[in-house]
Amino acid sequence: MAPGLFGAAAALAVAVSLAVHVALNCPIDPAPSPPFPAGPRHTPNNLLQGLEKLGAGRLSGPEDVQVHGGAVYTATRDGWLQRMLPDGSWENWRFVGGTGLLGIAPSADGSMLVCDADKGLLRVDEERVTILASTVDGSPIRFADAAIEASDGTVYFSDASTRFGFDLWFLAYLESRPTGRLLAYHPSTGKATVALDNLAFANGVALSHDQAFVIVCESGGYRCTKLWLKGDKAGQPETFVENLPGSPDNIRLATDGSFWIALIQLRSPWLDLVTRWTWTKRVVASFPVLLHAIKATAKGAMVAHVSEDGEILRVLDDTEGKVINFITSVTEFDGHLLLGSLWADFVGKLPLAKVTQAQQQAAAASS
Questions:
Q1: Element housing 175 (H / E)
Q2: CA 330, CA 226: separation in Å to the nearest integer?
Q3: Which locations, inside or outside the cell, does it occupy (predicted)?
């Protein structure tokens, strides 16, 4: 066989082999990814690099952070709910088990609500762990993610994807199909109902200061959607904020009625290339090693401060993830921001006064 023909035949054999492998092993049915928001980009400031590391080395992937009774709580990948007491000491508070403990929220009865991605919505107190909801309308809650309790006892929580669990979250992101849901657990009936569906990777959940509406973050759509709970618009959804400079993860009510949103930075030249076409998504998803390598190219951390009306007020970042990477939650407490990350071994603590001073100095220098 001539060298040219041999090379062509080899290339064809490789192409056919690849096509067969993808056809037999691809776990996703991808849709086109939404374009990254093309609006005005903020000026990188690296203000998150000034944080203090709390519990460094003892916390494995503290995805969410809450404050309850003066103590700082987080759930870690080793199955523990851990807390930092007011004197700065840490303790293992309650063992739940598993690697999928995500969003946590204090309850009015003193317990802690926990989203276990694998088991559903849990209530954890000093005595026991209780599963509140593991199904909705007869279907399993596959990816419980974040929760918040309203004053009437209703718990609003997200189910990120009806197709993939927490261990395969990146596949849900690549697939780009809106299968997420906002659920509502009703203590009077002991059952959960669907409040909103067709969400693009449903994630963080927060109530407005007057509880007139609930917000759910859509990580796959660079937006947050609000559902009116009171007034003439009760039951109606509408966009709260869109074109965010990152994928919104957890959202938290601030002391003044505004909101803080953690923005995952799922961008890199490789990620942008892979998500450009559905066929490249299929190829990457068919090779676990390649999938992990592409996911690892994402870097950077970002949070946004958003008004009650959905206006972006300011953005803080660590552009290359030098101090903290992949921020998944941000909570305002006692003049500081507490930052959680699945890719960190600490909780970040950043004084807001320091941030404001740095921003004022930067504004003065540019004027």
A1: helix 169-175
A2: 19
A3: Vacuole
- Asked if residue 321 belongs to a domain, the reply is yes
DSSP 215: E
- Cβ burial, residue 279 (10 Å; 0-12/13-18/19+): exposed
State the helix-helix crossing angle for 3-25 and 278-285, rounded to 10 degrees. Answer: 80
CA angle 236, 109, 331 (to 5 degrees): 60
Domain assignment present for residue 214? The answer is yes
CATH number at residue 315: 2.120.10.30
Question: 285: which strand partners?
Answer: none
10 within some domain = no
**Residue 282 forms part of a structural domain:** no
Q: How many distinct structural domains can be found in the chain?
A: 1
Q: pLDDT at position 83, please?
A: 97
Q: What are the distances in angstroms from CA 337 to CA 174, 184, 252, 277, 341?
A: 30, 28, 11, 38, 13
Spatial contact of 126 and 95, defined as CB atoms under 8 Å apart: no
Question: Is the pLDDT higher at 356 or at 71?
Answer: 71
pLDDT band at 366 (very low <50, low <70, confident <90, very high): confident
pLDDT digits (tens, 9 = 90+) for 330-344: 999 999 999 999 999
Chain segment 93-103, per-residue pLDDT in tens:
999 999 999 99
Domain range for 245 is 32-265+300-366
Q: Is the pLDDT of residue 14 over 70?
A: no
